[in-house]
Structures are given as C-alpha cells and as structure tokens.
Amino acid sequence: MTPAVFERLADITSLIIVATISTEELDTRIASDREKVERIVGRTRRVTLPPHDEDRAGGHDLAADPARTGRGRHERPRLSRRRTVTLFVLAVAILVGVPVVIFWRSSGCFPVVQLNVLTTPEKQALVEDRARAFERELMKTGQCAVTIQVSTARSAHTAIDLLSNGWGDEALLTAPRPHVWLPGSALDLEQAKRLTEQRDLLEFTPESLGSIARSRLVLAVPPSYQEWTGRSSFTWPEVSNAVARGELLLARSGPRSSSSGLAATMALYRHAPGGTGDVHHRIEQNLESPDHEGSYDLMCAVRHSFPPPAQPFAVLTTDKVVEDYNAGRPLRADCPKRTTPEGERLHMLVPAEQPVLLDHPYVLIGALTPRRDEAARALHTYLRSPASESALKKHHFAPPGKDDGAGTPPGGVEEVLGIWERARKPTRLLVALDVSGDMRDGLRGSPMNNRLAAAAAEVYTAVGGMGPRDQVGLWTFADRPGDIDHEELMEIGETTKDETLPARLQERLNALKPESHPGADPRDVVHDAIDRLRETSDDEGEDEAIDAVLLITSGDESPDRIPADLRPPVSTPVFVVALGLNGCAERTSLRRIAEQTRGQCYDVPGAEAMERAFDGLAVSLWGGGTSGETS
Amino acid sequence: MKPWPWLIALVTLLTITRLITVSRLNDDPFAGDVDDGRGLVFADGRDTSKDAWLDQLVKEWNNTHSASHEVRFVQLPTTTDEHRAQLVAHAQDPLLAEEDDAAKRRSECYDVVTLDLIWTHEFAASGYIVPLEESKFPTDAILDRALDSARFDGELWAVPMRTDAALLYYRTDLLRQEGLSPPTSWEQLRTQAKQLATKYGLHGYVGQFDKYEGFTAGVVEAIHGAAGDIPPDADGVELFGSDAAERGMRRIIDGFAEQWIPHKAARFREEEARQDFQDGKAVFMHNWPYAYQVMRHDQKSRVKDAFDVAPLPVPSVLGGWNLAVSECSVNRRLAYEFINFLLREKTQESMFRKAGFAPALESLYTKQELLDEFPYLSVLKRGLDAAVNRPASPSYVQVTRAIQMNLHPTLINAPGSLPSSLAALLREIDP
C-alpha cells in the first residue's frame, strides 16, 4: 500500500468520524467533492442546456434535483439528526468514488449526443440547413443538446452496399458510421433491407420512420424542343415508345446510382410497348449514354453540353433537381453556382397518369443507444414539423404527404435491376495509361511505389467489376520517338467472359515501368483511341455498345493555356484520371477533352481521390460494383 | 443491541476496501488492463502523406511486436468534422448503451485516437479519454505551447503528435522590386497588398475565408491582432465580448470592401488559396506549413523560387493533433508504448520530412541539418511561440459553428450587421 493510500485513508476516516458528529461539516465536504465533478461537467452545461427528459436510471428529472446540479445547495435547510445515517451512507458512497462516469451517465443530457446522418447529394443542403436549425432549436428551448454531422455517399449503390455490410472500417473512408440514413426513396431502402438479410447482418436492419419530403419525376426539355414545351404533361407510353423507336434521346441517371434513376427506369419499363425484354433492350440502346452517376452529375453534363443535340432531347429526373438546375444552384465542383441563361432553362412536364413520387424516407440504422434513438426520433419529428416547411420549399422539395409512398413504383426492384443488367448496353472501354517519366512520382496516400503502379492496381480492380458482355483494351503511351506515341498491350475485344483475362491483364500491368520519355499530347492519344474504337465497333450488331476511353495521365497542365478543341468533334466519352498538377482545372486540355466528349475529368492528387474516380467511372459505365451484385 | 455501531463498522470496512482499490487503480494507470490478445486499435484520419507514411509506421511497429500486441490502423474520414463525428459517436456507444449492450460496444474500442488539439477539452470533460500519467512520456522534450493544449483541469489528457502555426507567404520578387520587407503589422499588410495588387494586377492577400474551421481560426487571429491584451487562451466570451472583436473583424471586412482581398477568397480553403498563390495570382497568402514544400517542389509552380515565408502580422492560432487514450481501452500499457513510439525523434523527423507535419519535439527546431534543408523551420518556431488558442470549450463544435454562422455573412453580404452579429454570437455562446 502506498503512502498516498494511507493519507487518503486517514483523511476519509477522520471525515467519517466527523460526519457522525456534524452533518453541517459533512455537507461542506460533500459539496466540495461535488464541486470537483461539476467543475468539469458544469462547463459543458454552460453552452448546452438543462435536460428536458426523465432520467433513465432514476425515473425523475435529475437536472432539476439540487443535489445533482448543485443549484440551491447553499440554501438547503439543516438536516435533522434522524437522517444523519442516511446522509452518512450517501456521503461515503460519493466520497469513496461512486464513479464520476456514473454521475455523468445518469445526468440526462451528458454527454452531448452525436448523431451522424447519411444523405444524398441532392438533399445535403436541405439536411445541413435543418440540422443546424434543430441544434439551435434545442438550445433555445432548453432541451438536451445534440450535435449532428451530415455526410453524403457518392451514389445510392455505395450507400446501400456499405450499410448492408455493417459500415465496417473500410466504409469510414466514405463517411462516419451513420445512425440515420436519408435515401432518395423507399426503393433504396428495399434494396438495403434485402441485402442486410442476405448477409445475415440483422442488427443493421434499417427501420423507416416515414417520409420527410417529396419530389416527383418529371420530363425536362430544353426550350428549343418546341413540340413539347407547349405542353404541361406527358404519358409514359408515349415517352417509352419514342425512346424505343429512337425518336427521343432521353437522359437519366443510372438505376443503381440514384433513386430517381431507378424510378425512371421502372416507369419506362412498365410502360414499354409490349413490355417484353426486347423492348427494354431497345429502350436501353436508345437512351443517352453513358448513365450518369447521380442526378447532379446528369444535370452537370447537360449544362456542359448546351446547346443540346438537334435530335429531340429530354431529361428524366426529379422536379427538385431540374429546379436546382434552372436556379443555377451548384451541382458539383466543376458545376458551381451561376445564373442559368433563359435559353438554357428546362421546361418541366409531369406524367398525365399517377405521378411517380420519391418519398425520401427517414431511416434509423441498426440498434441505437437509447439517448441516440431519442435524438434521432426528435430530429425526424422536427423535419416533419411546420417549422421545416419553408426550408423544404426553399430547397425545391414538397412536404411529405399523409399517404407516404403512394405513387412510388411498387416493389420489383430486384426484377427491374435484373432486366436493366441484361438490357443495358455493354461497355467497350479502352484504357490509355501514361507510362512517361512523370509517372515515377509517388501518389499521396498510396503504398505503391509510384503513380503508374497505383493506377495499374486500380485498373485491374475496375476491370474485375465489368460485366461479361463488356470489353476492355489496354494501351500505354508516352512521347516516344517516331510518329506513334501509344503501344497496344491488349486489343479491344477482350471480355471478362474469358476466364484467362484477369491473369493476362495482371501480368501486363505488373510488367509496366515508367519510361524515360516525356509525356505525350493527350489529344493525339485520345484521337487515336477513339479511331481504334470506331474501327473495331460492330454498328450492325444487336448489342450496340457504349464506347469510352479512360485516359490516365500524369501530365501537368497550365490553366492559362487555352487548349485547342478536339478536331473533329467526337461523341465517344473520354474519362480522364489526371494525376498531375492542375489536371482538371478550368481551361486545361484534359478538362476540355472531358467536357467536349461528355465524359468526366477526375483530379487525382492522392489514393483516396483515385478510388473515388474509379468508383465514379464504374457507376457511369457499368453501374458500379460487380455485375449482378444487386440483381 | 442498537444496530448503529455495526452499521458504521461495516460501512467503514467497505470504505477502506474501496479506497484501497481506488487508490491502487489511481496509482497504476494499467491496473484495469486485460491482455486479451486483441492488440491495439489506433484511429487517425485518412493517411494522405507521401507513400502512406503513417501506414508504414504502423507496419514497422507490427514487424517488431508479437501478434497479440499488433496495432490495427483504422483510418477515419478525411474531413476534420467527419473525423470528429466518428470518434465521438464511437466513444459514446459504450457510455450511452444499456448495460447488457455496453460490454460488446466496449470491445470495439479505439484504444489510441488522434484529436485536433481543440477537441481535447471536450473529450476529457465528456469522459471519452482518460488522463495520462505524465511521468511516462517525454513531456520535457515537447513544445510547451503544444503540451498546454493537451492539459485540462490540471491533468495531462493527451500528448502532442504534431503541431502547426500559420505563416505569411509572400512574393520575394515583387517585394524586392519594390524595396519592401515583409509586413509585420496588419496595417503594413494592408498598405503593401493594396499597392502591389493595383500595380501588378494581382490579388493582394488570400487566405482561408470559406465558412469552415479555417474561418474561425482567421477570425480569432484577427481579434488577437487587434487587441494585444487578450490572453492567448481566452475563451469565447472574453474574445467576442472584447472591444477588439469588432475592430479585428472590421479589418477583414474592410479588406474585402477595398478588394485587396478578392471576393472569391470568401470561398477559399487551404488548397484554393495555395492554388491561387502558386499560380502567381496573389502577393500574400495566409496558409499552413504544408504548402511550403508543395510549392517549392512542384515543377509547375509559378512561384517555385519566388516566395518565402514570414510570421503572420497577427498571432497565428495554434494548430495540431494530439494522441489520447480512450476511456474504453483495456490495453493502456500498450497504448502508452505506442504513443511513445510515435514520439521518438526519428519518427517525428520523418513525419516532418514525409508529410510536412510540424514536429512536437522542441529539439528538431534547432537541428542544424533540418534547418539547412527547411529554412522556414525557424520562422515556424517563432509563429508557434507566439500562437494563440481558439476558444477552448467542451462544446467547441457549437462555439465554432456559431462563429461561422453569425460572422461569415458579414464578410461581403452584410458588413453593416457586424455589431448585431457579434451580439447574437455572444448570446449563443454565453446564453
């Protein structure tokens, strides 16, 4: 036993003796000990607020109890001798360390509950707005404080997959583990529930508390499409027919990447003339391609591609997203806030039949601790309260209806995704990988030796996610002596149906080393790659494919150089993974290439951005993840 | 027989037993350890350092320890807010759980966590981390200012892993051409920025003015710069209730109004500011030390050989990350060992070289070899010595959000509302 123990023992023993004699002195000692605890706890209460709820352990309001809060302890009347022993026992219990933690845990409002919310990019601004208002409301009205973190996942598929896997360590790179999930619609919820059940992770089964907002599917057309701008409604059969016959170029986001994309696909399929697989196939063949990762990605592409093609063109998405677009709201990093010119504003038509509504459910994830559960339910109530109505309007949402879910396409999500997997166009992806000296540099956050090795590893993983009808080709390029900068390592036409493909691809990728040559002009490489795709395409075949080029380059760019356009204009989308400085900055060649071809330019300063870029690419071209995972 | 003597004797006996146990626990920080072979869980933000240096460091530890003492590195979300949200929610799980659920949640404990130094009070007061036994760490070797940030209520709750202070980046070519020295006061900064911005058609001064934590830091710096008599660790009420609050904020607002701070800078964070300065578009920049190495080594940097750094003309806020041990940890001995492993001089030096993180160890700031290679190290040390704290509070998140929500709109859109915005802010942080 250490001297400190003896000291403490002597101290406490003397106190016990004194306590039996003088309750006043004991009171003082108790107050002193309490003060020590409150010195810490009280600082928080200064900014948080007194509790409103009953204490779970004791069933009464502890915060209102002067013995707990310290309020009024100096006014406490002198206790009678009859209560000396009771007080003594209480004093000893406190003094010998009924742990501070227990005190805190039973004090109703401490600690301030942390609530993590996962939502869609389209709802992020609304939820941030409401979360801050809710935090302030609690403080104003003297209720237990809550801190809310709002995060987003890149796509519905990402959120569903990570949630139904229990949001493990790897998922933390996307967002903190969510307690509340706000997907676009019950369609996403249905998929998450099914996958959670399949994976036997019942403790993460999502529970919906009901809708918090509504948006509806609309057909949005540019002002130049005068045949439709004079109308206020459309019918699903006429749109499905027009698309199936190739008379209307229709754009939508991918059915696995957003609820609106899925709802749109379901509606199109359901009203397809004849409703056969062949018609679904024709619809998919005639849709604008590739699918866009999310609704904002879709509208960003529309913004970049104005004026639209001469062919009749329309976008199938939600009224909320179209209104954001027309209002010039920021859509993505490369689509910042702006004033949308009158001539670029889209005209909205609603279905003449029953509207297709997205119900934006409020979902609790897994077994929450009691106080967090209470906070989460209180936030839901707040989001549905009249106080939130003006915010919904400001963010272009409609308030939830009493008949939640009405009008949302009924079940059958699995079936539709299965049809889509079979009907969608296969992808022909030509990967052009920079092997110039710049690729020797390391990539922040990557354990690989250099950028080339890091990129090669991602290419291998991405190809593993392609479907059996997809094709891949592999080029390397650098400013090599002679006229031709590229070398063909794998001819376009290889499919993942060939079981030897992964091993052959890995062998070729592993053998790559950065060369001593400088970087080549990316426009030359892109032109050659597009030509190659054209030469090898099978236009007459049943399965017209989505041709795309993936350009991975380390070339640095000067943002002040105005690059020349690609000549002639091309329609094959080029996705650029830019590992160098300023790769996707405005007025750079790489950015221009991506914009002109309706592809996308991903700035990749580190390993995390590289993963995100390939995720985005996968969703755009083959729906994301591994083929058939959710079908 | 009256029961009182027996009752008193029984209680006294129980008291003594309890005291002995408590004292032993208090004396031995590892008394509650359980060698369950689980190893240690270390939670830090996403490792974005060159060659994933932190990940390699964990591997180095694991190569020299048995499987039961291995460290599992959990990488948290990249943004600071999300990093905190995950840590707090995870620490709360066992504390808020029902009794039958708490044990399971404790078994998922993050033993060692990294905290933005401003969260240390919140984590300590909330019971998420435990006080550390100071004698078991080389605290004498750690920078005093950094170590102060890890203390709360007279105890040491964390150990600094890396520290930080903002620097004033300036264009050497332009200042030389004009025969100017770097500004040492806000007024000098204003005069030079206006003069050179007009003459060369550049932005005078860029920094972190977007509505996020960087804005809070800038506001705190401006107020301290306008006051001179506010203690470096002033709390929110002292800071925003002072006369200097309006003067400090007004300086920034005037910078936007006079346009030597460009309007677009109201949306700049660290990287946007760096890009602007690196592209040769700005004369002065407020930024952190990491930007130095990026701009110096980048082949395409337009200011590669045309910039240098000086201390800010106002005190910098102190930045940095601390290592703490979670309350739920039953591997505290191992946690202490791992923290000391990260504090080795060799580790700290490589952290600076590889990731640009300013070391927590004092000795590295005078190491000649490092000074030769990184001359800005001495400027950084001066900045650290004069640094001030953001208003520490167990409810810092609410405080910083209140600062941003009330004061950011005054930069451009509502400069006239500054007095009422400050009053509203005070009401929120001191209800």
From TrEMBL, chain A:
Report the protein name in the record. Answer: VWA domain-containing protein
SUPFAM superfamilies this protein is in? vWA-like
Q: Which residues form the VWFA domain?
A: 428-617
Keywords (alphabetical) are: Membrane, Transmembrane, Transmembrane helix
Q: Where is the composition biased (Basic and acidic residues)?
A: 51-63
Q: Does the keyword Transmembrane helix apply?
A: yes
Pfam families noted in UniProt:
SBP_bac_11
Q: Does the keyword Iron apply?
A: no
- Chain residue ranges for the region called Disordered: 47-76, 390-412
Domain of life per record:
Bacteria
Where, by residue number, does the polypeptide cross the bilayer?
85-104
